[in-house]
Amino acid sequence: MKVGTDGVLLGAWFPLDHGCSVLDIGTGTGLVALMAAQRGAAHVTAVDIDPDAAWQAGRNAAASVWADRVEVVCRDIAVFDTAVRFDRIVCNPPFFRDSLRSPDAGRNTARHNDSLSFETLAQRAASLLAPGGLFCLVLPYDAVEVFIRCAVAAGLDMCKRTDVVTAPGKTPKRSLVAFGKNCPAIERDVLQMCGPDGKETPQYVELVKDFYLKY
């Protein structure tokens, strides 16, 4: 899978204190894991069920300056366990339900949620989260309410939500959402990526500028 805007948005947006431990579920190429390491995570564990994806993520991590702080594990998150509980858990999950399949099995795993249901994802995140930790993910706008119900059933509360619009007047396509345990309030805002002139907004540039050479 190629690097996508969704992963960049998640990797730049999720709240991260310096020295936090991070778990990246479904790491793919390792993009979000490496962004977390760049932002100052003490250690990042990147998990993917697909051997090819885990191999690619491992190569990318090894070639980076953060190789000593990123561990890649090829494992199904449904059975992954560790004594470690993580300060931050991040995920760019499979999005598509009941849609056409690709002949590429790896692409299907990355893009469809047959192998990782919202219910399983929420339950596993809740069990692996440290006290005071946050579970952050990017979702299709029209899937957020479904996921919130799964998160609440797993004992998680939504504490932050940013709806992403590509341009003025457009309906949001994605939402960036953070969950925790016993969250006192919900913070909501909107991220507009482009202005009326088609140029990237200062808000968007400020969010992602540390991760693109063009800025």
Description of the molecule:
By secondary structure, this protein is α/β, with parallel strands linked by helices. It has one domain (5-158): Rossmann fold. Helices cover 30% and strands 26% of the residues. Strands 3-2-1-4-5-7-6-8 form an eight-stranded mixed β-sheet. It starts with a helix and ends in a 7-residue tail after the last helix.
Name its key features.
alpha/beta, Rossmann fold, single chain, 7 helices, 215 residues, globular, 8 strands, 8-stranded mixed beta sheet
Topology:
Layout: H1 5-13, E1 21-25, H2 31-38, E2 43-48, H3 51-62, E3 70-74, E4 86-91, H4 105-111, H5 118-128, E5 129-140, H6 144-153, E6 157-165, E7 174-180, E8 187-192, H7 202-208
Parallel strand pairs: 1-2, 1-4, 2-3, 4-5, 6-8
Antiparallel strand pairs: 5-7, 6-7
Helix pairs in contact: 1-2, 5-6
**What is the structural class?**
alpha/beta
CATH fold category name? Rossmann fold
The biggest beta sheet reads: 8 strands, mixed
SS field, number of helical segments? 7
CA gyration radius, whole angstroms: 16 Å
Mean pLDDT: 90
- Going across the biggest sheet, name each strand in turn: 3-2-1-4-5-7-6-8
Number of domains: 1
* The CATH architecture: 3-Layer(aba) Sandwich
Strand content: 25-35%
